[in-house]
Specification:
Elements lengths: L2 H10 L12 H7 L6 E4 L6 H8 L3 E6 L2 H13 L5 E4 L12 E7 L8 H11 E12 L3 H7 L15 H7 L3 E15 L3 E14 L1
Helix pairs in contact: 1-4
């Protein structure tokens, strides 16, 4: 097991939910405006966003490198009386198909810096034409907020954080519905608390 996997298994192994059981606010706001279809949640952890979306009638797939995260997500799905397809592993080892999804939700999907753009490009292949990407993750400016308050969470190296330019470069074939850097208040479980800086992006694949 590599350090990255171990880190997330450790984080998800406690009884409590690391980021709570409620969905991310931005995801909730955006998903409620869409007609249900098929959706993929990369780096989905303990499943709070996937389960919320399944309850709205979506066909939900998710993946993560953490078995512990999957275990928690499946328990949460059971207690909410929904089912989701949740796979464990690196994206290229999983059996998703080109054009399989109507939407992809990247919610704090902070992949290691050296592969994050490649992952975005692989994910793009899985989204159908006119499909929607919903994205919220910490911006490069977030380091300033972390310096003031460690409890807000997020990566501590600038390469793992995002910029508007990076998103434009990773998703060039998208109509930009929304793309902004924004200061927000987070109150999600044990590890996302306080003021932070995020990139928010809604894109429709051309």
């Amino acid at each position: 097991m590599n350090n990255w996997t171990k880190r997330w298994d450790d984080r998800y192994s406690s009884e409590e939910f690391a980021y709570g059981e409620e969905p991310n606010n931005y995801l909730k706001e955006q998903i409620e405006q869409l007609n249900p279809g098929s959706i993929l949640f990369p780096a989905e952890g303990e499943g709070r966003n996937a389960i919320f979306t399944a309850k709205l009638g979506w066909k939900v797939s998710a993946f993560d490198i953490s078995e512990e995260g999957r275990n928690k997500a499946l328990k949460l799905a059971e207690s909410n009386k929904v089912s989701i397809d949740y796979q464990v592993g690196e994206l290229e080892t999983l059996d998703f198909e080109e054009g399989q999804f109507d939407a992809i939700a990247l919610i704090y999907a902070h992949f290691p810096a050296e592969i994050k753009s490649d992952i975005h490009k692989q994910l793009d292949q899985l989204l159908r034409k006119d499909g929607i990407i919903i994205f919220e993750a910490f911006s490069k400016k977030h380091l300033e907020y972390l310096a003031i308050n460690d409890k807000v969470g997020g990566p501590k190296d600038i390469e793992s954080l995002f910029s508007i330019e990076e998103i434009k470069s990773d998703f060039p074939n998208y109509e930009i519905i929304e793309l902004e850097e924004k200061e927000i208040e987070l109150n999600e479980g044990l590890f996302h608390n306080g003021t932070g800086s995020v990139i928010r992006f809604i894109g429709r694949k051309k």
